[in-house]
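Rather than argue in generalities, we reproduce a single protein record, letters for residues, whole numbers for local backbone shapes, just as it appears below:
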Amino acid sequence: MKRVLILVPAVLALSFAASAAADPRGIAMGSTDEVIARGADAVRWNPALLGLPGSPGFSMRLFQAGARADNNSFSVDQYKRFNGATWGDAEKAEILSSVPGEGLQLKTAAGGGSGVSFGPAGFYADGIGAGLAEVARDGVDFALNGNGLDRIYSLQGSGGNGYASARMLFGMAFPVRRDEGSSTAFGLQVGYERGIRYEEGSTLQGSFHSGADTAQVMGEFLKREGTRGWGPRRSKPTWRPRPTDSPPGPSPSS
């Protein structure tokens, strides 16, 4: 008797898992989607799993979405203490001391997708957008404490980039051995990817200086952008055995 699996979750995962739209179960089990994904999710993570016992005869991922955010400077505890509070000199000093020498980095990503599998094959479509912002440490200092007379603030390293893309994947499993004791399958994934937009801006050299009655900004800036890139995508064949199996290959000589 064939089993039918319909998946209808919408998850917001504020963590850096393997992807912005990771499966909720995979996140709960330590981002192990490449091992535990089943049905339509296996098309995306590891199509070899479609050829193992327990894979549903039909599966549909109606929709799944997620987001993630991270920074290289501040902890959750600091966010709770400083958000909405009044910052004095001590709080500003703590915030600035948390920023490393290379500056503040903020990263965000969001994505979503849907798919379907039928037996050992399936399709999955998804999209993702991501961004990175970088602020030089002197820039953070200027924002916190204002302008210091006769001080030169270096802006070098400030900038950011962002992109959005979409893809369509086809995955198929080729069972090699499938029984109660042990099972092995190979998987193949082929896809088409399209870049929607890419933007990048960076400060090659930059500084800000002000005196008692003058202010001066100097720098070199770079901006790049791109649209409508596309191309085929083929993953390396994957294999997935039961834990008691060994990877296919010649037996070691005695």
Observations:
- The first strand starts at residue 4 and ends at 7.
- Helices lie at 24-28, 33-36, 40-45, 76-82, 89-98, 137-145.
- Residues 89-98 form the longest helix (10 residues).
- The CA atoms of residues 38 and 55 lie 6 Å apart.
